[in-house]
């Protein structure tokens, strides 16, 4: 597969009254054409900010991308000004994003049809009549009943699940090369979540679109993703194929996330403690205070960079390092 997106050394900071928050700290990963990637971690670990940084949607101030690159189809898109013609053409046209809460993404004062049509008029240059016809067809594809009538509804007239289906449809209108689904099903109940995930999976396969699934649920990405990146405290701590990470999790944080996946007849094992402050990040492993495998060496050794284990498996804390002196 051809390389579609390569993110290298991405670092994003937020200036606050208490200090500088390093929300994303030297993050590197890649996405191939037609590939589904899972980006998992607790709330506040930097997974959403990393994707907003690629799209240049981080509010400035207080946020700022201070380092790194994001090569999309061989071009570093972070070199474009956030509101430049080039970046606006990429957002929505080549890279689309499905946000967690559609009511904050959809304009409550505009009909669904108008919002969908404007996307195609802007990026595809078609007229309003054709844009409306394509919008109705897309609503039909994403499972909206009676789309020729619902296209004139306002967002508040649709249920949460239907609004999210509209967001998926809007993301697919211009047949982008990459879709970023940022906690796209978190606000929905379990049955609607399953329907939306299956819909998203069918759509990206139909149009051969790459997908980055941002979520805290490893169980979701295990079903749909090819590879997983596990984030903690603003950095990727483990990366590999679903099979490699599910069969042999090496980082204790990954083990903790897997223990939180509900299993019939088994008790959930929570990860004790709280994530560290991203203002005064410790020089040692940020997971150290919560780690059950920590050794004396962990209290003095600097935080590791990702190290290759085998295949496509990388980790910042290889299991071989956990067998030292207690």
Automatic annotation (TrEMBL):
<protein>
    <submittedName>
        <fullName>Oligopeptide transport system ATP-binding protein</fullName>
    </submittedName>
</protein>
<dbReference type="Pfam" id="PF00005">
    <property type="entry name" value="ABC_tran"/>
</dbReference>
<dbReference type="InterPro" id="IPR027417">
    <property type="entry name" value="P-loop_NTPase"/>
</dbReference>
<dbReference type="InterPro" id="IPR003439">
    <property type="entry name" value="ABC_transporter-like_ATP-bd"/>
</dbReference>
<keyword id="KW-0067">ATP-binding</keyword>
<dbReference type="Pfam" id="PF08352">
    <property type="entry name" value="oligo_HPY"/>
</dbReference>
<dbReference type="GO" id="GO:0015833">
    <property type="term" value="P:peptide transport"/>
</dbReference>
<dbReference type="InterPro" id="IPR003593">
    <property type="entry name" value="AAA+_ATPase"/>
</dbReference>
<feature type="domain" description="ABC transporter">
    <location>
        <begin position="5"/>
        <end position="258"/>
    </location>
</feature>
<keyword id="KW-0472">Membrane</keyword>
<keyword id="KW-0813">Transport</keyword>
<comment type="similarity">
    <text>Belongs to the ABC transporter superfamily.</text>
</comment>
<dbReference type="InterPro" id="IPR017871">
    <property type="entry name" value="ABC_transporter-like_CS"/>
</dbReference>
<dbReference type="GO" id="GO:0005886">
    <property type="term" value="C:plasma membrane"/>
</dbReference>
<keyword id="KW-1003">Cell membrane</keyword>
<dbReference type="InterPro" id="IPR013563">
    <property type="entry name" value="Oligopep_ABC_C"/>
</dbReference>
<dbReference type="GO" id="GO:0016887">
    <property type="term" value="F:ATP hydrolysis activity"/>
</dbReference>
<keyword id="KW-0547">Nucleotide-binding</keyword>
<dbReference type="InterPro" id="IPR050388">
    <property type="entry name" value="ABC_Ni/Peptide_Import"/>
</dbReference>
<dbReference type="GO" id="GO:0005524">
    <property type="term" value="F:ATP binding"/>
</dbReference>
């Amino acid at each position: 597969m051809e390389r579609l997106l390569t993110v290298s050394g991405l670092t994003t900071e937020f200036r606050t009254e208490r200090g500088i928050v390093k929300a994303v700290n030297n993050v590197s990963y890649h996405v191939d054409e037609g590939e589904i990637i899972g980006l998992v971690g607790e709330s506040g670990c930097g997974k959403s900010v990393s994707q907003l940084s690629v799209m240049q949607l981080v509010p400035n101030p207080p946020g700022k991308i201070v380092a790194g690159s994001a090569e999309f189809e061989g071009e570093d898109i972070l070199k474009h000004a956030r509101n430049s013609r080039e970046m606006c053409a990429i957002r929505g046209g080549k890279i689309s994003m499905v946000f967690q809460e559609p009511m904050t993404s959809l304009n409550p004062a505009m009909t669904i049809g108008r919002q969908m049509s404007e996307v195609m008029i802007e990026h595809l240059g078609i007229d309003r009549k054709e844009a409306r016809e394509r919008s109705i067809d897309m609503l039909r594809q994403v499972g909206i009943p009676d789309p020729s009538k619902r296209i004139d509804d306002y967002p508040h007239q649709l249920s949460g699940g239907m609004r999210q289906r509209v967001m998926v449809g809007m993301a697919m209108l211009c047949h982008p090369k990459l879709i970023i689904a940022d906690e796209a099903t978190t606000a929905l109940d379990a049955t609607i979540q399953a329907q939306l995930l299956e819909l998203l999976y069918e759509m990206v396969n139909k149009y051969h679109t790459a997908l980055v699934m941002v979520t805290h649920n490893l169980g979701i990405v295990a079903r749909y993703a090819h590879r997983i990146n596990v984030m903690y405290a603003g950095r990727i701590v483990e990366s590999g194929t679903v099979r490699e990470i599910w069969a042999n999790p090496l980082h204790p944080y990954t083990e903790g996330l897997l223990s939180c996946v509900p299993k019939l007849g088994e008790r959930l094992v929570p990860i004790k403690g709280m994530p560290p402050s991203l203002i005064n990040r410790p020089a040692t492993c940020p997971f150290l205070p919560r780690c059950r495998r920590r050794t004396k060496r962990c209290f003095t050794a600097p935080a590791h960079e990702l190290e290759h284990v085998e295949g496509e498996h990388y980790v910042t804390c290889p299991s071989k390092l956990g067998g030292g002196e207690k």
